[in-house]
Amino acid sequence: MLNGTCGTNGGTWMTNYKNKLFTGERSLFGEHNAVISDTTFGEGESPLKESRNIDIDNTIFKWKYPLWYSKHINVDHSIFETMSRSGIWYTDDIKITDSALQAPKLFRRGKDIELTNVHFSDAEETLWSCQNIKLDHVQANGNYFGMNSENIRVDDSSFIGNYIFDGAKNVEVHNSTFVSKDAFGIVRM
């Protein structure tokens, strides 16, 4: 294969990308059934736009819009740098663990989002209008985190910023800390 060995993951053939550097716009556009590890996505917008069934490990995203309109994504031990802003929009069924998310506006209009042991250094305007969210051991710094999202469970997490979960619906919080003004703003009809 072009990018290394192929293997199976639950009976599905997976293309492996390891120790790669991708630059340029839409470098792996529409990729499906792939494992990406020890890789850097440099300058170039939308590297994994419209991707499906992707496992990502120890990878760095340096530029804008890395995961738009994607489905069934697993990310572990990875970094979304500051310029990967507006990074994960319209994406469904994504799990991110043990990762650093440094860019603002990372999630919009996605659903079935699980974040575990994740640190948002700039969560400004992140997680907007999303559904079915699980946050476990998440740290987020930024205003308007979680605005207009719904069906959210939060465990052992901490948030610093104003208007956290403003306009959100069905939010369940356990063992978590908020340093915020006007968190959980009232939804008006």
Automatic annotation (TrEMBL):
Give the domain of life: Bacteria
SUPFAM superfamilies reported for this sequence: Pectin lyase-like
- State the Pfam families in the record: DUF3737 (PF12541)
Provide the protein name.
Uncharacterized protein
